[in-house]
Design goal:
Helix content: 25-40%
CATH architecture of the largest domain: 2-Layer Sandwich
Number of domains: 3
Structural class: alpha+beta
Largest sheet: 9 strands, mixed
Number of strands: 23
Radius of gyration: 38 Å
Distance between the termini: 41 Å
Shape: extended
Number of helices: 10
Strand order of the largest sheet: 11-13-9-8-23-21-16-19-18
């Protein structure tokens, strides 16, 4: 493949920028690009057009065209692959993708084009490598900057300490009635600088002795533990002698804290007099191709009453799709639970204890059905000409649940080399032998995502197990509180609720 030039044109065919990779005159490239829009008017919907001497391979990108000018005998498959890489580079520097944005970032685009093609031939680089090369990020430079900042910070701290020492010397000189020592020995009559420095150092040491011996003087003005407490006690005793009754501030604070604790949990932000709390935990082991080996989901539902007027309750619970095994607390009425789906004490007049967490029920699901996996991972490592290429895809099967703080960790064994990431739906970090793929939220708006990376060496089996971690504020099995009523008169009671789903183990081996 011989690539003659790469250009970005507007819809009318006007060249916004062009980069030639072989010796070509300006009039030659302008003539070729001027003929490009005329060839486009033939009505043929192809990704390339040809003339007698060259081939135009193009791709529309919003309001512009990415155009490659190649020889007619070049490999069209390689041309299209190179075109796709060029088209992915443009959004890295142009956010609006219009003429003004392209012209504004022309030099950055040209530098990136030079990393893709050299002397008319395609370089074996990815988008991540292009980004690194154009940014010219240097680890040595970062270390040097950090060292310089540390030195500046230490110099500032040293100057502050020196200023404090000088201030202390002035204070000590005022107390003892002595004059400040001459700074730098400028009053010495000896003109020899080497002999002048010696008496200055000796004088400075002699004058500093009182400052360091000051704590030995029993003046009572030095810093001592308990001095503040003694002053407060003297002030309180003085007020008491005058007939005043004073309570120390510490005792008042302790009393206020006790009153706050005795008032229950009503002061917690967003919590009502009846607060329901449910927790779920998932444990999953699956194959690298997404096949499920085992999955277990366990949960518990509890509530706490802080309002005495709402201590006699009956709770109507939605058990979701009914897949899970439910176990009700023995103290609740089993007949009312089976017939009406209501959890209530056997004695309606019995009240729940205040400020105490009361467990209602537990649930559990064990399955090996693959369609029950909430978030499936498909990992495909493939040996390439240089190293291993890995493609990972996630799919959210439980689209009614929002997963948060999702982290997919892929092990990179020692000796494989640092991974070079291409496409990534989200963010990634590489440290301590793991490539961590981070997605803040996965819901029905981003049900699937892809991560692609390559390593200089390795084996396809070395990238397992892939570990996943996430949380959610929704139940996987749909177990929720529908309504809470007073057990005596059936009146609805206002309540608040929280749910936490967390991962115990989530691996694809």
């Amino acid at each position: 493949m011989v690539l003659l030039a790469a250009a970005v044109c507007n819809k009318q065919g006007k060249a916004l920028l062009s980069r030639q990779f072989v010796d070509m005159t300006r009039s030659r490239i302008e003539g070729l690009l001027a003929s490009f829009p005329k060839l486009m008017t033939t009505g043929k919907q192809h990704t390339f057009v040809e003339t007698d001497s060259v081939r135009f391979v193009y791709q529309p990108i919003d309001k512009i065209y990415m155009v490659l000018v190649t020889t007619r005998n070049s490999n069209i498959l390689e041309d299209l692959e190179t075109l796709r890489l060029f088209a992915r580079v443009i959004p890295e520097y142009c956010k609006v993708l219009d003429e003004a944005d392209v012209v504004k970032n022309a030099f950055s685009l040209i530098f990136a084009f030079d990393e893709i093609v050299a002397l008319g031939y395609r370089e074996n680089v990815s988008l991540a490598q292009i980004r690194t090369l154009t940014e010219m990020d240097s680890q040595d430079e970062r270390i040097q900057i950090a060292v310089r900042q540390t030195q500046e910070r230490e110099a500032k701290e040293a100057s502050k300490r020196k200023a404090k020492e000088l201030t202390q010397l002035r204070k000590d000189a005022v107390k003892t009635g002595r004059a400040m020592p001459a700074m730098g020995g400028m009053g010495s009559s000896n003109s020899n600088m080497s002999s002048m420095s010696t008496p200055v150092v000796e004088t400075h040491r002699q004058e500093e002795k009182p400052a360091y011996q000051a704590p030995k003087v029993s003046s009572g003005k030095g810093m001592k533990l308990g001095t503040k407490a003694k002053d407060v006690d003297m002030f309180v005793n003085q007020l008491k002698s005058e007939g005043e009754k004073v309570m120390s501030q510490a005792a008042t604070s302790i009393r206020k804290a006790s009153v706050h604790e005795s008032s229950g949990g009503n002061s917690a932000a967003g919590r009502a007099g009846v607060h329901v709390e449910s927790k779920e935990e998932i444990k999953l082991t699956a194959g690298g191709d997404g096949s499920l080996e085992s999955m277990e989901i366990t949960g518990v539902l509890a509530f706490k009453v802080t309002d005495e007027s709402s201590s006699r309750l009956a709770l109507k619970i939605d058990l979701g799709d009914g897949r899970s095994q439910i176990q009700l607390h023995p103290k609740f009425d089993k007949d009312k639970w089976r017939n009406q789906g209501i959890a209530a004490l056997k004695n309606p007049e019995e009240a729940f204890p205040l400020n105490t967490e009361v467990s209602i029920l537990k649930w559990r699901l064990q399955t090996t059905e693959e369609d029950q996996i909430p978030l499936s991972i498909n990992c495909w490592p493939t040996e390439a000409a240089k190293g291993v290429q890995v493609n990972i895809e996630y799919t959210l099967n439980a689209t009614d649940v929002e997963l948060r703080d999702v982290v997919i960790s892929i092990p990179i064994p020692q000796g494989y080399g640092a991974p070079v990431v291409g496409d990534c739906d989200g963010e990634y970090t590489y440290e301590r032998g793991y490539l961590s793929w981070k997605i803040p939220v996965i819901d029905d708006s981003n049900e699937t995502g892809i991560l692609e990376f390559t390593t200089p060496s390795g084996k396809p089996t070395g990238f397992f197990p892939v570990k996943v971690d996430f949380t959610s504020a929704q139940s996987l099995l749909g177990v929720t509180i529908e309504e809470i009523q007073r057990a005596t008169d059936g009146e609805p009671v206002k309540f608040s609720s929280d749910h936490l789903l967390k991962v115990s183990k989530y691996e694809f081996v």
